[in-house]
Amino acid sequence: xxxxxxxxxxxxxxxxxxxxxxxxxxxxxxxxxxxxxxxxxxxxxxxxxxxxxxxxxxxxxxxxxxxxxxxxxxxxxxxxxxxxxxxxxxxxxxxxxxxxxxxxxxxxxxxxxxxxxxxxxxxxxxxxxxxxxx
Amino acid sequence: xxxxxxxxxxxxxxxxxxxxxxxxxxxxxxxxxxxxxxxxxxxxxxxxxxxxxxxxxxxxxxxxxxxxxx
Lengths: 134, 70
Prior knowledge:
The complex is a heterodimer.
Chain A: H1 4-7, H2 13-33, H3 39-57, H4 78-94, H5 103-111, H6 114-132
Helix pairs in contact in A: 2-6, 3-6
Chain B: H1 2-25, H2 34-42, H3 51-69
Helix pairs in contact in B: 2-3
């Protein structure tokens, strides 16, 4: 079965990507330079979120084809969700610090580096844009 | 030892996501792509309110806030 989002690519997708990718790169480069717990980082995340949520709830961003019903194969997606949720719940409930860290705690030293932070910013905002267009 | 368990658990969840992404992209796959699953969740509405859309966009914003602002 051909996946609907592949079949539904609009002819102008390349031109749209030529605009959105550079914008996302700039957003990520700026976001990656802002340190954790800073007012600037909070405002940048808040502003990016407000813009994207407004676009996602409005009609200005062109959307992909309407979603089709999913078959029973979709239940496989619950497996990683359950594994991740289970480990996060246990590590959070036990609050054992670095002995049994939560996912956030594991990511803290990684996201302290500006390059990794920019990459995370790009991944987050690109996925956000993907959701806006759904 | 417990730290290795946590790292292994989270890594296995991410590896499962990667495997499902690959499997979902294969022609004829019965596993839908992650995009198709998100699209279906976002199409859920209660009356005129796009609950699925609001929920998923809001959740994703919170993920960014949690990891990138804090």
